[in-house]
Design goal:
Elements (H helix, E strand, L loop, with lengths): L1 E9 L11 E5 L10 E2 L10 H4 L2 H10 L9 E6 L2 E3 L13 H4 L3 E2 L8 E4 L2 E2 L5 H7 L1 H6 L12 H9 L3 H6 L4 H13 L2 E2 L5 E3 L1 H22 L7 H4 L1 H17 L2 E4 L1 E3 L3
Parallel strand pairs: 1-2, 1-4, 2-3, 7-11
Antiparallel strand pairs: 1-6, 4-10, 5-12, 7-10, 8-9
Helix pairs in contact: 9-11
């Protein structure tokens, strides 16, 4: 087994973590608590935090810290309320027992894997009244969506919650080698691996960020910032990254899906 070096991104103090494998990374507007890694220095996008969420730190890490990491180390990213946990963590996890359930080691029997990503979430189950209210533009084009759950896919779900047609516009800005594959992925899947949390090694992490951030910069020219109103739209760049991560790690790495927990705090 080999320990994983985790970076936990937060905008509020985290007082319940006590594992040395976990490094706290600050994206809050207030001054950071002592010992937290700051991402408002060096090459950074801290001024975009309200739009990029935890990606604010991910970008800083890529530009300022990744180069100094050991190539053989396993590196992971989590966030204040969501953590990758051990496979035998079958109890309700909260701040009182999270430390004993945290994933901290990359097991020897996982040697064939190149990455860990979150267990997927399924996006089916919206009530028909909500589908009609938020997905009416899609239904006008294809009324069968209302009754065919296979068509209530990632693309439809994104249209409902983050602006009709926005995912399609973003896909057109991807590099050629991923454009058609990602479009097919979001139109044929009804679940995805959420939360922009993963574990991998330096080389793959660099490739991931080299694919992600230039794409998001192109998306900025399409969507901007000024008209991104409300939580569902303001953080569209983080939501795009979340769907893209689910696709990218499956296409480019030998991945393993891992349990995760949501912590009320």
């Amino acid at each position: 087994m080999k320990n994983i070096k985790f970076y936990c991104v937060t905008n509020k103090p985290v007082n319940f973590l006590n594992n040395p494998c976990y490094n706290l990374a600050w994206v809050g507007k207030n001054d950071s608590p002592p010992g937290y890694i700051k991402c408002n220095n060096g090459e950074n996008i801290f001024y975009k935090e309200q739009y990029y969420s935890e990606l604010t730190f991910h970008y800083w890490y890529w530009k300022n810290l990744l180069g100094s990491e050991n190539s053989d180390d396993w590196i992971g990213f989590c966030q204040r309320r969501r953590y990758l946990v051990k496979e035998n963590a079958n109890q309700k996890i909260d701040i009182n027992n999270i430390n004993k359930n945290l994933l901290i080691e990359f097991k020897k029997e996982w040697h064939e894997f190149e990455s860990l990503i979150c267990n997927p979430i399924q996006i089916l189950g919206a009530k028909k009244i909500k589908i009609l209210k938020r997905g009416w533009k899609n239904i006008l084009k294809d009324p069968s969506i209302l009754f065919n759950e296979k068509k209530q896919n990632i693309s439809f779900h994104f249209d409902m919650h983050h602006g009709y047609g926005n995912l399609d516009k973003a896909i057109m800005l991807l590099e050629n080698e991923d454009r058609d594959d990602f479009e097919d992925y979001v139109k044929t899947n009804i679940k995805f691996n959420p939360h922009i949390m993963f574990v991998s090694k330096k080389e793959i992490i660099d490739k991931w960020f080299n694919s992600l951030f230039p794409w998001l910069e192109r998306c900025e020219k399409k969507f901007g910032f000024e008209n991104l109103k409300g939580y569902d739209m303001q953080r569209i760049y983080a939501y795009l990254a979340e769907r893209y991560l689910s696709f990218w790690f499956k296409k480019y790495t030998h991945f393993k899906e891992q349990p995760w927990a949501f912590i009320e705090n």
